[in-house]
Amino acid sequence: MEDDTDGDASAEPSPEELELDLDDETASEASVASLPPIDEAELDGEILIEEPPAEEKPRKKKKTVDPAALAAHRVWKRLRAERKAAKKAKRKAEARAKKRRGHGADLEAFLMKTKERLDTRATEAEAEAAAAIVVSARPLRSTGADLHSFILKAAAERAAQRAKEAKAAALAANADLETFRKECQARIAQKLLSKMPQVKAGDVMGEGAEGDACTFHRRKIAIVGAGPVGLWAAMLLAQKYRWTDSSGALRLRPDAPQIVVMEARSMASHCTRTDIRIALSSSTRSMLDQQTRSRAFSSGMPVAEIEENFLRRWRKVAGVEARIEYEAAVQDPKDLNGYDGILWSAGRRSLNEALRKDLGCEVRIGDSQKVIVFQVQELLAGDAWHLSSLDLSGAAQQAGRVPQLRVMLRPGFEGACACWLWVFGLPAELLESLVPKQASNEPRDHLVEAFEDLVGNDGGPLRAALEALQQRMKASGVTARVVDASFWSSDRAVCQLPSSVPLVLIGDALAGKPFYTGSTLNRHLWDVAKLVEEVEFAYDGGPLELSRFGSYERRYQDCVRRIGEFQRRAAAPVLPKPLPRMTSLTTLKRQDEGSPSLMKSLILPALARAAAAH
Asked: Is the pTM of this model over 0.90?
């Protein structure tokens, strides 16, 4: 399968990866719901590789010791720790009370009142027995003293017996009430569990089915292609559906979708593309660092490192469920059975034209031009970073007298080359002699010599432009090749298979720009993050319908129509937008005062129908 980096191939020596795992396993899980706003202007334009900042020596700070300030700081820290401990104890008490709410609190009150009543009875019986004993001990002055003494003594014995029985009843009642409380809690819990869907091995069981396990039905999502975009989608899906269980550990929710990633490459060849460098914008780097809980991303880092970071984070979040099926080449999404949804990130040419036509997602080529790419092994005139900041296009235009000529230089990296030089806006007479994927094999010591290996001695005005560039660069070990730089886009972002399963195109399978813009992968990462944030992939009782991806489809159509190079200015079919859930025009007016267009869209058709009726 093709990778998702066709539009971002560039070069820059990446700084040493500084990865800091900020994921505290006792903290709440990360979520894609806190994404910053997308900078559309940045993603629509060109993104260049940023020069790594020069290392500055940290300045030594003079330490000043103030005994009073230190003592105040220690007191403040102690008070803060006490406040935190009090808040933590209060939260735990509230959690326990909330857990017992509805049955436990009433049962505890009943238990306490019963104990108090029994203790009161026992105390009263003991007091009555004591009074009887005191009376029986007094001497009798009248006749019949023996009979009266016998009666009082018998009464005292009966009172003592009742007190003894009351005390025994109170002790027995305490044990019975505790057993009764536990039985009530177990009965209520069993009643609640009986109302939940009983699932075994991922299938919902009917009444009377065997098995005591109670879990949730889980959707099954296939991700075809384990490039940067595919791994990013798998990581975000796992991260979205993560929670803290009763033991305080972070793990996948019971209803989290099952993710199956399929990759045509072997395990040995996965995450090995170190010769392709990606220009990541500052906002993209910030988002990636936030979602992966690391500081590993930098402008100009290799594709292999991006894939490794996504894969490492996915395995940490999903655990044993993070698996990739290697050497699983999928040519037709119709062959994937048993899935609720398919995310296709296998590359630009992974779906053939006939299949795309049947699904309604044909690819249209926008602005396209042939470009000559020079790979330079050594620069004798200076640093590539300095040369990339110069106006090489102006010098080439003036020397060759070709106003539309454009030159872009991007630094290389150690072990591959010193830089790449892209020349586009070529003259029409030269374009006829160029063949895409044509290349020179033997390194030359001059840009003109490498160019002659492609077109021969007939270079025209471009020869003079290359002479001027050679004087500034003093390039050595130069090879040249011809590539086709084009804008491409699919008619639709979401299609429906004959089995009613939605096929969602992401990455280069959806759209892309020429490599020199450097913004293709940046756009793909943001689009997938918004897709995972908006769509509910967990099972909610209904099928994963095509309409759930309406926002993703509309956002894609707006993007390709906004950028003129895609040549899609005409309106394209989009998924129907869900109607607002409002019951009256008064509610609509109150909730949408700042947007009168929605009011007009509902009121004007009604007025038109009324006028037609009259």
From this structure: no
Percent of the chain at pLDDT exceeding 70? 74
Q: What's the average model confidence in pLDDT over 392-398?
A: 90
Q: Confirm if 431 and 417 have CB atoms less than 8 A apart.
A: no
Q: How many residues does the chain have?
A: 614
Q: Which residue carries 């290799």 as its tokens?
A: 302
256 and 238 in contact (C-beta within 8 Å)?
A: yes
Residue 126 to residues 18, 115, 174: CA-CA distances in angstroms? 78, 17, 20
Across 67-76, 368-377, 533-542, 581-590, least confident range: 581-590
Contact 504/494 with Cβ under 8 angstroms? yes
CA 230 to chain centre: 12
What is 82-101 written as a DSSP string?
Answer: HHHHHHHHHHHHHHHHHHHT
**pLDDT in the model for residue 234:** 97
Q: How far lies 48's CA from each of 246, 388, 395, 411, 559, in Å?
A: 47, 10, 20, 10, 21
> Do the bridges between strand 277-278 and strand 301-302 make them parallel or antiparallel, or are there none, so unpaired?
antiparallel
- The residue behind tokens 């002479």 is 467
- Copy the structure tokens of residue 371: 């470009």
- Comparing CA positions, the residue from 18, 19, 21 lying closest to residue 293 is 21
Question: What single-letter amino acid sits at 96?
Answer: R
Instruction: Work out whether the CA dihedral 266, 269, 270, 273 comes out positive or negative.
Output: negative
CB 561 within 8 A of CB 265: no
Helix or strand or coil: residue 433?
A: coil
CA distance 374 to 400: 18
H or E segment to which residue 227 belongs: none
* Dihedral sign, Cα of residue 382, residue 384, residue 385, residue 388: positive
